[in-house]
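Milestone 3.1: sequence recovery, worked example.
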């Protein structure tokens, strides 16, 4: 539901169907549906089934915000990796140049 695979209004399997599909106790399946109903992402319609609820504007905002944070975090990590690779490339090049010039050449000891 949260990742958008189940659209608002989509019908969910019954507790009995979940029980059969996953080989769990019917009470476990019913409890799972009850918890989801209490948390808000689903609702029950008597004699019709269980359905996915439309996200509130606040929940939609929080979902987009969370997705944005995940994207920014991934980009930060990629940038950090690139920076680390450049740093090692430069440092390795300086170290090799120093080795070729001999031990009397001053070596940069801090980056």
């Amino acid at each position: 539901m949260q990742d958008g695979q189940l659209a608002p209004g989509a019908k969910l399997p019954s507790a009995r169907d979940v029980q059969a599909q996953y080989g769990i106790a019917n009470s476990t399946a019913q409890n799972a549906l009850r918890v989801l109903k209490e948390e808000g992402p689903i609702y029950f319609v008597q004699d019709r089934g269980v359905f996915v609820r439309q996200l509130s504007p606040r929940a939609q905002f929080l979902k987009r915000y969370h997705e944005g944070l995940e994207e920014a975090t991934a980009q930060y990590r990629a940038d950090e990796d690139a920076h680390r690779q450049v740093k090692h490339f430069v440092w390795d090049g300086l170290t090799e140049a120093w080795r070729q010039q001999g031990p009397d050449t001053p070596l940069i000891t801090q980056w």
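The two ends are 48 Å apart (CA to CA). Residues 55-99 form one domain.
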